[in-house]
Design goal:
Elements lengths: L3 E5 L3 E7 L2 E9 L3 H14 L5 E8 L5 E5 L9 H10 L5 E8 L6 H19 L2 E5 L1 E9 L3 H10 L3 E7 L2 E9 H14 L2 E4 L1
Helix pairs in contact: 2-3, 4-5
Length: 198
């Protein structure tokens, strides 16, 4: 199972010009398909006067959820080269959009492939690439007297507290890197009344 993945920190832009055509490119961090759809709708609205709004995205730590779209360009000349640039950098949770303003001169399939590839590459070159951990959630139910032991285990294994309730019975929801999940679960299970992984 993948423990970390590469993505981009924030939006970055690029541009490529060829024979009067302008290719504006945007690399955007995204979490899920809903966010992809939202961003695509916004860009299509903003650049409604452009000839084509082509894109590709990759989602998930395992990099198994992806799509490439030519938006009316000849098949395989736009989305595929954009996706190729995402793949060559090993990125995920990223959407790259390339907006084309036609300059009046046809570029041919080879020219289009180069243009979309270079535009996508330019946007990704400007991006700050970051490595993130794949996380899971642990829910811990425990008695107040073992609070110190629980808190020490949390600190030791880089878990973040997402929600907590301290009454007679205590409850903490943790975000834990999957690399530390098993060892932390085992430690907490010894002192807690219940530990749930989700």
């Amino acid at each position: 199972m993948t423990e970390t993945y590469l993505t981009i920190h924030k939006q970055s832009n690029g541009i490529y010009k060829e024979k009067g055509s302008r290719f504006l490119s945007f690399a955007l961090p995204v979490k899920d398909i809903e966010e992809v759809k939202m961003k695509l709708t916004a860009y299509k609205k903003e650049y409604h006067d452009a000839r084509h709004v082509c894109y590709a995205y990759m989602l998930g730590a395992e990099r198994e959820d992806f799509r490439a779209n030519d938006d009316g360009e000849p098949s395989g000349t736009a989305g595929k080269p954009i996706l190729g640039q995402i793949n060559s950098r090993g990125l995920t949770n990223v959407l790259v959009i390339v907006v084309r303003y036609f300059g009046g001169i046809l570029l041919g399939t080879g020219g289009l492939i180069t243009a979309y590839k270079e535009a996508a590459s330019d946007a990704l070159e400007q991006a700050e690439i970051i490595e993130l951990t794949v996380d899971c959630t642990l829910e811990v139910f425990f008695e107040y007297p073992v609070m110190d032991v629980v808190m020490n285990a949390i600190k030791q294994h880089q878990a973040q507290i997402n929600k907590q309730e301290f009454n007679e019975k205590c409850f903490i929801r943790l975000i834990v890197p999957v690399a530390n999940k098993t060892i932390l679960f085992d430690k907490l299970e010894k002192v807690a009344s219940r530990v749930i992984i989700s």
